[in-house]
Amino acid sequence: MLNRQLALLTLCAGMLMIILDTTIVSVAQPSIQADLGFSAAGLAWVVNAYLIAFGGLLLLAGRLGDLLGRARVFQAGLALFTLASLLCGLATSQELLIAARFLQGAGGALTSAVVLGMIVAMYDEPGERTRAIAVYAFVGSAGASLGLVLGGLLTDALSWHWIFFVNVPIGLATLLAARRVLADEPGLGLRGGADVPGALLIVAALMLGVYTLVEAGGAGWGSAQTLGLGAVALALLAAFAARERSAAQPLTPLRLFTVPNVAAANLVQTVMIAGMFGQQFFVALYLQLVLGFDATEVGLGMLPIALAIGLFSLGLSTRAIARAGAKGVLVGGLLLIAAGLMAIQRAPVDGLYWRDVLPALLVMGAGAGLAMPALPTLAMARSTPADAGLASGLLNTTQQIGAAIGLSLLATLAASRSETLRAGGEGAVVALAGGYRLAFAVAAGLALAAAALAVALLRGERAVAPGAPAPAAEHDLYAAGP
């Protein structure tokens, strides 16, 4: 039991480091821009390079975990992420920082793609598995808020370089712990599914797709660039699907999508994350650019949502799932997220943090703390040891795609609304606040849409008494070929 708990702690430590890095850069961007001379468009690539590599490689990384051994892939990803973090911290040019961020994204994909699959494999008893997934979900959902806190503190107290340097000792310690506590279980072997053409097609499709989404905000959703690149990405995805139907050892057996709840849960997650990721970004902007908070104050102002997520995901979600079922808890959590977003959508230009922001953050944190453990519980409930890595990688992939879609869509809508208000004679701050309010309203709509999809498409899992065996897996995706 102790070894299993240490293994869970080690996996979550690695995951936390990856999640923190998705938001820790946000608060430090003005300092990075001033120091390295980035243009506004060039600065976006400090984030985009990471997102493109991360989102593009997740599905392949999950399959490599099944083939080579998930513990080995986790450790390889940690080593690459730690080295890339050191290079980011040492960067003295725009080119080096962007290249190192791309390597960070690759390391993050290798590390995070296999974590959920390893947790599912370690915990057979449903109650223990639900509690372990709740810890994992807390790390994933609260880590983004904690990244804003840490980014603000390090940037103000030291310099932007330290938002990357801090990963080095954490990464080394986690890597040493992983070598000691994670079981080195062999994978299926490369002969079990080394579909190189399929791998090239899916990586190209996902990288181009994520690139198209993150650039859509600047180029325009209806622009020739967005439509053209999107069409090429879809064509590559279609070619990948055709390849998987005919390959003797497919990289991603298409029967994965016939496993109960897999396709539906990934669709729900895409829509849910599109709203949730965008709201964290725009709450931080509202605090900084409308209410006048500095970097440290923004980070501390976002801390309550992380605390609420922790309280509900670690303290209440397991019991709620046992009583009401994961589907009911997921839908309830999504409705709370929507309620919080609708509340903050009413925040005025001269708003007060304690009155207009904090209550909404607490409600959103409660909703995320319930929804985030419930969704992977549904998505992974029927995974077998042979497909857990791939299913985990798929869930992480749709999370990144949802984040890219949400941020690009909400940023485009907010900027358009702000420009319209400025053209109508409103001041800069009033125009910004109007754009952010529209972003919050659309994010609330996405949360409600995710709740509706969950009600319509997800199959509820039976409540299982503590100590009972987990439901029998119904699909072994690799036993019978494609």
From TrEMBL:
Q: Which UniProt keywords apply?
A: Cell membrane, Membrane, Transmembrane, Transmembrane helix, Transport
Q: Does this entry carry the keyword Oxidoreductase?
A: no
InterPro entries the UniProt entry points to: EmrB-like, MFS, MFS_dom, MFS_trans_sf
The membrane spanning regions, by residue number, are: 38-61, 73-92, 98-121, 133-154, 160-182, 194-214, 220-242, 254-278, 298-316, 328-345, 357-381, 393-415, 435-458
Classification via Pfam families: MFS_1
Subcellular location(s) per record: Cell membrane
Major facilitator superfamily (MFS) profile domain span: 7-462
Q: How does this protein lie in the membrane?
A: Multi-pass membrane protein
PROSITE patterns per UniProt: MFS (PS50850)
Query: What is the protein name stated in its UniProt record?
Result: DHA2 family efflux MFS transporter permease subunit
Source organism (scientific name):
Conexibacter stalactiti
Please spell out the taxonomic lineage of the organism that makes this protein. Answer: Bacteria, Bacillati, Actinomycetota, Thermoleophilia, Solirubrobacterales
